[in-house]
Amino acid sequence: MQNTGKFAVAGMLVLNLISTINNCGRWLPTMQNTGKFAVAGINLVYNLSLTDLAEQQKLQWYSNDQDVKMCVMKGKDEENCQNYIRIMAKSAQGRLLVCGTNSFKPVCREYNILTGNYSMEKEKPGQALCPYDPHHNSTAIYVGTFNERIKLYLPRRPIEF
Structure pTM? Predict the structure, then answer.
């Protein structure tokens, strides 16, 4: 059986996304007014078309080898010593904040997305912004006022940054 055209591409992409979402367990916010939505997974973020689910763009962000080795040395398995993208928020016009577990050493990056590509502008430690554990249940809400704060909702209480 031969599949051709957009349907086959979208179907393969959906299967890959289902696998990614099942492994990571996260849908992340839409990119409003762009005709795209974003889905994050392990070591990557997909931007997909709302009309046909075609991949518009992909950001790959792997933990560096040193962080993975340290994570494994501390007794974690290699599957958990990846960069699970857990937080993504549009921080300003054309700017995107992305945080990942980074092998149990959270890191956040700010990207400029005005050009249509991901252009990293800065990287900072993600402790207290992003969970260490990829299986930790948390929700982050970005509030773009009063020094641009992020709230990380842990199971019991919110922490404001």
Answer: 0.71
